[in-house]
């Protein structure tokens, strides 16, 4: 179906904390006869409230914003507005973020370096019921799906490892034995398919499993 011939335009909402990005997207959408921008937001929380009470076909969403994260917003939208399709538009392509977004229910994961024409076409495809994941995003998603999920405790310990803590220091911080710490590290290195704790920490940061604050 060519939505340009349909009787009503695709109703979109933009969510991005950068005004320049919102302005650029708004300008592109204004030139599309089959699309209309219903609202734009700098944060996810007010968007979720708005969409739960307004007819919106598709939300174009950044993942990294102050306050409610993009992943949290996706989960909230899937609960409050299950008929609204969600597409991530991000500058980042970390395996873990892609995986979490897909698990939360997005229909597409696009990168901000794509052309405007390709973005508009992707919006149309998702609206029509297709999934839209560029090849390199799809490959990262497949790579991530092959790895087992880390438990919350394993993630916690991996965070300490990435910060340079020894097993003894991790054990003291978490009030567990060094033997338990070693077991967790053995399990997480196996799940991540890496050879040691240093490689595990590097891999976790590189793929977005860990987001270290500075």
From TrEMBL:
Keyword Repeat carried by entry: no
Membrane listed as a keyword: no
Domain HTH luxR-type residue range list: 143-208
GO MF annotation terms: DNA binding
Record keywords, A-Z: DNA-binding, Phosphoprotein
InterPro entries: CheY-like_superfamily (IPR011006), NreC/VraR/RcsB-like_REC (IPR058245), Sig_transdc_resp-reg_C-effctor (IPR016032), Sig_transdc_resp-reg_receiver (IPR001789), Tscrpt_reg_LuxR_C (IPR000792), WalR-like (IPR039420)
Superkingdom of origin organism: Bacteria
Any Gene Ontology biological process: phosphorelay signal transduction system
4-aspartylphosphate, modified sites: 62
Limits of the Response regulatory domain: 11-127
Pfam families, sorted: GerE (PF00196), Response_reg (PF00072)
Gene3D superfamilies for this protein: 3.40.50.2300
PANTHER family: TWO-COMPONENT RESPONSE REGULATOR
The protein, known as: DNA-binding response regulator
Biological source species: Paracidobacterium acidisoli
């Amino acid at each position: 179906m060519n939505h340009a011939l349909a009787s009503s335009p695709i109703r979109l909402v933009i969510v991005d904390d950068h005004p320049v990005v919102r302005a650029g997207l708004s300008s592109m959408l204004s030139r599309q006869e089959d699309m209309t921008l219903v609202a734009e937001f700098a944060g996810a929380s007010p968007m979720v409230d708005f969409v739960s009470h307004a007819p919106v076909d598709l939300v174009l969403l950044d993942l990294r914003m102050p306050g409610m994260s993009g992943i949290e917003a996706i989960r909230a939208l899937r609960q409050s507005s299950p008929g609204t399709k969600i597409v991530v538009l991000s500058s980042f392509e970390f395996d873990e973020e892609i995986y979490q977004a897909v698990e939360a229910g997005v229909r597409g994961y696009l990168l901000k370096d794509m052309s405007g024409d390709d973005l508009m076409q992707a919006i149309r495809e998702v609206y029509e019921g297709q999934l839209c994941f560029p090849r390199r995003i799809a490959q990262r998603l497949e790579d991530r799906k092959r790895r087992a999920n880390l438990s919350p405790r394993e993630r916690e310990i991996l965070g300490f490892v990435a910060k340079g803590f020894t097993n003894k220091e991790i054990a003291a911080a978490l009030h567990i034995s060094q033997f338990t710490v070693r077991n967790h590290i053995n399990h997480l290195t196996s799940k991540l398919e890496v050879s040691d704790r240093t490689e595990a920490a590097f891999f976790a940061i590189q793929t977005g499993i860990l987001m270290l604050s500075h």
